[in-house]
Amino acid sequence: MDATRGSISSSSTQSTKDESASSPFILRHGRRYLRDLPYPLPCDLPELQRQNLQTLLATSVLGQALGSPPNFLTRPPTRVLEVACGSGYWSSLCHEQLETAGHRVTFTGLDIVHLAGSLEKQGVDWKFVQHDLRKVPLPFDDDEFDIVVVKDLSFVVPVGAPSQRILDEATRVLRSGGTLEMWDTDHLIRSILPHPPPPPGANPDVYKRAVTTGTFLISPGTPFADAHNKFLQDSNGWIQEALDRRKLAPTPCTLISQTLLQEVETLRDVGYRRIAIPLGELRWEREAADRNPTKRRESESAKGKRSVAEGGALTEEQASIRYTALLVVIQMIESLEPLLLEVSGKNQEEWQRWWGWMMADLLEGKGASNGECLEIGVWWAHKI
């Protein structure tokens, strides 16, 4: 009996070791990471939740899951590909948008590991394809999809030839006339300067959405400065160095427009929306509200209805959006902790002290009141 129990135990232990060796994940620093791959972020529930929160934030300030203007009158989409789909949350949001518009669409998610839940139970016509983005071609036919969405690849694919290969493949599998969308977020924090003017020629509805959400449309002329907050200055420097070492882009939003505009033989009608989401109530907004509590932002001219929240310049929706942006930034720094520890030269005890001071400053001390913003963007083009 003891021998039998020992045999079972030995067999079970060996099985666990075999499963561990074959798993695509490995535990490091108390987080789950992809095994033998240079991806710098963990692949565990907290990080997936952060990515979902970032997707929800981006689609909320845009007002839609598809960033490009709808062009479905003559040929509605039937096949959508989400590259680097993660949990598939964007596909579920896009499904809701398209279904509401009367379109029944098949979604395909592609990623190196299967992290998505059962989207089929949510009524999404969904298929997952497992594939390493570093290996081309992608496992799809030419002209297979009506819409291809490439999301948040700046932590995945190095700049230069690797990112160009992904763009080429995304274009190849897109049908003629189909829409390519690229979404990303800058990982360095800048401060927007007081009272930025609306971009020249801004769409009135788009500008009204920015006013309603308390965000700012970004154009080449939007005035920015370096982050004022000391802790965000620290994390900016460490993130810059850590990503530079891996040839990843710390500010991908500054690169994507030019990349798409260079594809003159395959893409046309390049457009974009870039948005700055402040990480809290801005000092100059509060000062304006204190001087005149009934004063409305310049956007009143765009017929945007808003009410000043009690004791501040923001509506509840605006305050919620900004707090969510702050959480996304804090959680990103937390997910990058091993890399930032490495480049900062801090030991664990020093890091924990710095982390505690940062949290107190940003969450309790309103340390991001000088224009510090999370910058997100979506770009689109049609295949020739």
From TrEMBL:
Residues 1-15 have a biased composition (Low complexity). Residues 1-23, 288-311 are annotated as: Disordered. CDD domains: AdoMet_MTases (cd02440). It holds the Pfam family Methyltransf_25. Residues 80-178 form the Methyltransferase domain. Gene3D superfamilies: Vaccinia Virus protein VP39 (3.40.50.150). Residues 288-303 have a biased composition (Basic and acidic residues). This is Methyltransferase domain-containing protein. The lineage of its organism: Eukaryota, Fungi, Dikarya, Ascomycota, Pezizomycotina.
